[in-house]
Amino acid sequence: MLNLTGKNALVTGIANNRSIAWGIAQQLHKAGANLGITYLPDEKGRMEKKVAELVEPLNPSLFLPCNVQDEAQIQTAFDAIRDKWGRLDILIHCLAFANKDDLSGDFSKTSRQGFSLALDVSAYSLIQLSGAAKPLMTEGGSIVTLTYLGGVRVVPNYNVMGIAKAALEMNVRYLASELGPQNIRVNGISAGPIRTLASSAVGGILDMIHHVEKVAPLRRTVTQVEVGNTAAFLCSDLASGITGQILYVDAGYEIMGM
């Protein structure tokens, strides 16, 4: 029943085969979506090569550089989408970053620059990309972002990223309200801890995963594919009545008090 054939989907945030964005891209492809992939460019082109080799089996029809701190690059990427596809149906936002120094120690010592950077890349970028996608979603659409429990509860060593995720989740609600009249839905997935390149910057990530495995009702954590399945559902007509929501895909951990 889940069919995304004929849908154009842009996936951001793939860094390697452990990325949650990679799990999402695989499931969107499996459901029949036509994929566009963005990567974070670097001077030596290493990320471009790595991501290009990884996503080759998915046969993306667009492969674009997109640094969300570069307004011109965002515009160029969405101009390419308009020229190639004419419209956009799905936007997957899997972008987050904070300085490692701001993910440990006393939260009150968070630097101004570190705070601004984390909020810019991890939260404001959803506003940027949604604004760029809006005029291309002429037949409605679905925008999905990734968040984490640390945006609503204190998690050791998450610090400024928790503030960024809280902002991100509120962005989901405001964007859902604005874009709803155009039949554009905006939702977030709060995934359980998964060992990725991004999560490796959080001190004690393996301890967090083992704790979830002991406490969560399903007695395990989740996989990239499980998050990908939820994203594919949210992007499909099966979720046509869902917007402005944060869906927990964390083996039930969020419901537990202790």
What does the model show?
- There is one protein chain.
- This protein is α/β, with parallel strands linked by helices.
- The protein has one domain: Rossmann fold.
- The chain contains seven helices and seven strands; from the N terminus they run βαβαβαβαβαβααβ.
- It has helices at residues 20-30, 46-55, 71-85, 112-133, 160-179, 205-215, 224-235; strands at residues 8-11, 34-39, 62-65, 90-93, 141-147, 184-191, 246-249.
- It has a seven-stranded parallel sheet with strand order 3-2-1-4-5-6-7, with helices on both faces.
- Helix 1 links the parallel strand 1 (8-11) and strand 2.
- Helix 1 crosses helix 7 (224-235) and helix 4 runs parallel beside helix 5 (160-179).
- The longest helix has 22 residues, at 112-133.
- The protein is globular.
- The model has no long low-confidence stretch (mean pLDDT 95).
